[in-house]
Design brief:
Layout lengths: L1 E6 L2 E4 L4 E9 L4 E9 L6 E7 L4 E3 L7 E5 L5 E6 L8 E9 L4 E3 L3 E6 L1
């Protein structure tokens, strides 16, 4: 089992920046990739960014060029640097991890609110 704990959400003005962090615990040796998803009110959860143990990244189209995902040296943390934030980035952001058996884990989420 893997447990995920997010931090760093909050309120920011349009054009500002925030950094989200997620710490993994438990069976961290089994993790093959980590990432961030978000869910805005009335919308489906969508991919924000994902990074594998090999460092391969992919981003949702709406955040390319503005957000950057990174892993800590011990591969137990994943960070999301969010720049040039827009009101449409307002959502609950969830940390995500996948293990070598294909099981998916989720954090409880952290709210990001971007005011116009």
């Amino acid at each position: 089992q893997v447990q995920l704990a997010e931090s760093g959400g909050g309120l920011v003005q349009s054009g500002g920046s925030l950094r989200l962090s997620c710490a993994a615990s438990g069976s961290i040796f089994s993790i093959t990739a980590m990432g961030w998803y978000r869910q805005a009110p009335g919308k489906e959860r969508e991919l924000v960014a994902r990074i594998t143990n090999a460092g391969i990244t992919n981003y949702g189209d709406s955040v390319k060029g503005r957000f950057a995902i990174s892993r800590g040296n011990a591969k137990t943390t994943v960070n999301l640097q969010m720049n040039s934030l827009k009101p449409e980035d307002t959502a609950v952001y969830y940390c995500n991890a996948a293990d070598w058996g294909g099981k998916i884990y989720w954090g409880k989420g952290t709210l990001v609110t971007v005011s116009s």
